[in-house]
Amino acid sequence: MFMNILDIIDSYADTYPDRPAHIHREDTVTYGDLFLKSNRLANYLIDKFGRDKTPIIVFGHKQNEMLICFLACVKAGHAYIPVDSSLPAGRVKDITASAGTKLILCMEPFPFETEGCAVLDYSGVLAIIGSYNTNPPDRKFRVAEQDVYYIIYTSGSTGRPKGVQITLANLHSFIKWAVPLADIGGISDPAVLNASAFSFDLSVMDTYIALASGGTLFSIDKKMIANTRELFAYLLKSEISVCVCTPSFTDMCLADSSFSETLLPRLTCFLFCGETLTNKTAAELLARFPSARVVNLYGPTEATVSVTAVDIDRSTCDLASPLPVGRCKEDCEILIMDKAGALLSETERGEIVIAGDSVSIGYFNNPENTAKAFFTYAGKRAYRTGDEGYLKDGMLYYCGRRDFQIKLNGYRIELSDIENNIRKLSGVSNALVLPSYTDEKLTHLSAFVILEDKGADTSLKGVISFKNSLRKFLPDYMIPKKVIFKDQFPMNTNGKIDRKALAREVK
Fold first, then answer.
1. Per residue in 103-122, pLDDT tens?
2. What angle do CA 297, 302, 304 make, to 5 degrees?
3. What class is the 411-505 domain?
4. pLDDT in tens, 217-244
């Protein structure tokens, strides 16, 4: 029987108490400290809330205390909701309102005054984890197998984010599959790179592969990613064994010739998820890191990070374009369905549907969207991904989105989410957002905007002002790179906006 992940992590406090569990810049938390401090905070939460299992928001970026808070929440029976401090206040407000939380644990100043919930600031968190009750928290309060373990908010088509509920059983299903996939069991002092924010579900992969293996989670932050020189200096001392990241992050690194096996001599595996891995990127990695595996994965947040995987070698790069995204894990099933929900044969393209133990129980406090996306298939939970693909000899091939949802730099984005938030801006009559491609790779977003005032400033200064206004509602990764002001949108023969005609304008 698989051991509870909390027990696994706690066991390393006995086995390797002084081993780093997480490193961020100059700050380190050991397994011994992770155990002690998460227990103290869990006892505080139990004393404060008892059996009340209301989810708790954990607000910050890459601080060690983020992990301490995550574990404390679930030890006390609460799902945690990671919210990154880079999100704009409007986005954080939407998440806070949806979550209905009674407590926000902050590693950084919270961006607005709250009503109906308490905010524990960083000094308060430090005080509790430094001196509160040190006894092991009563296990009866812990998140149980079918309880929600974490909630991650993703882009929603209404302009409001959706909270994906992942149970402990979902997480256990993922860990049992992902840890052997990373294959770091025989590596001494393994280290796993954390490149994405904890509010992005790709971080679940690196976090729990590291913690379940007794390894070190080695975090880089947004400032490092913006400064390649600083990033590479940090990577040089990281001694990472596994790199979990998006292809876009790797493409940025590959632009520097020093990104090679010399920089990361202990690296044994790249795990890619979140967006399309191109043949060019995979081939370049195989050339620069001849001793490392390149693994392509696929899966949405609603199915606990990923459910398929395949090792990409040189022959695959030469023979398959696009690259396959892998075979399904044993406790799940990939189905390809048509619009009516009928199963399609091998090689027929249709909607990718995932059924099995990894599938979420649905969206938090959102029964309408849950009913649309989730259903039961052959007695198993199933999720309609909205992605298009096909199976060939049991191997899944991803063919893009069926609707207007895309993945850019690893982030899943509903284009209608951006459009609805643009329409909130004063003076905007209508808006449409399209993805722009270069050599078949999604590179940026373009917004077409109709203003109420035809004499409004549409110069470069006007575009900059427009983007700054939009940042009040959306994070930077959702801000369109190009903004084109229009008097009206072209229409097709069906009386709908001619998206193809607009797309040609930004080719």
1. 999 999 999 999 889 999 99
2. 55
3. alpha beta
4. 999 998 898 888 999 999 999 999 999 9
